[in-house]
Amino acid sequence: MRFGLCADIRNVMEVQEAGYDFIDGKLNQIALWEEEEFRSVLEVMKKASIRMERCALLFPKNMIVIGDKYNEDEMRVYLETAFSRMDALGCRLVVFGSGKSRFVPEGMRWQDAYIQLVSVTRIVGELAAKHGIDVAIEPLNRAETNLINSLAEGAALQADVNLPNVGLLADAYHMRQEGEDMTRILTCGPFMHTHIALKGSRAYPTEKTEEVMEFFRLLKQAGYDGTVSIEGKSGDWKADSVVALKVMRELAQEDR
Which of 127, 129, 153, 234 could form a disulfide with 240 if both were Cys (CB 3.0 to 4.6 A apart)? Predict the structure, then answer.
């Protein structure tokens, strides 16, 4: 497995110093920068030995893709800038979480919202494919969205979109917040990418607790040997990221 940290890419040197294999950026931040700012950050990234191999936060929070406020033309313009900047950064995978963007508005039938989400995700996938980019669907807990809250629902969405560059992400935090059966990791894959953070606090995995060990056991049992990013919170992210990386690398190597 290879390990990344979700962070502002302007902190790439700190993430590199912590020992991570890559940085996991925030696309809705990068895509909205003025061109001059993006170019200056791009120069900083070029000096680093690690890259932004993954990024999360596909859409800005105010870009709605479900219901009457959905504007396909606006979304397409945004995505063209976003994917072009991913290209420039050498990033080949974006995570489709964006819970506020895909929230089902009051009064809308869930089935209609789901059909619309299939259409939106297909458009995202088709535009991403033109740039050689993969899209990983991220099921989120109900506190963040009311549409696609489990791996099974994410797998169904992936199947209905039916594009080779649109896949699924397993997020340990969201699964545990939902009380989802963790063994679904064995039946809903394969996965394009994974996220980890602790239930409740969303803290970094700085100890070998059963919660953390189970996630790695199941990933390995499922034959997963891809990328894992911490998407969490910390009062001292620089120190905690070093400890968490050591824990994850040791767990990835156990029983091999």
Answer: 234
**Residue 177, C-beta contacts closer than 8 angstroms, at least 6 positions apart:** 141, 143, 199, 200
Per-residue pLDDT reduced to its tens digit, 181-226: 999 999 999 999 999 999 999 999 999 999 999 999 999 999 999 9
Look up residue 191 and give its two tokens: 């996965």
CATH architecture of 2-253: Alpha-Beta Barrel (3.20)
The CA distance from 195 to 47, in Å, is 26
Residue 161 has pLDDT above 60, yes or no: yes
Query: Helix or strand or coil: residue 142?
Result: coil
For 127-142, what is the mean pLDDT?
Answer: 98
Q: How confident is the model at residue 73 (pLDDT cuts 50, 70, 90)?
A: very high
Q: Where are the domains of the chain?
A: 2-253
Indicate the residue type of 37. Answer: E
- Render 156-188 in DSSP notation, one character per residue: HHHHHH--TTEEEEEEHHHHHHTT--GGGGGTS
User: 134 pairs with which residues across the strands?
Assistant: 93
- Residues paired with 6 in a beta bridge: 24
The predicted model scores a pTM of 0.97
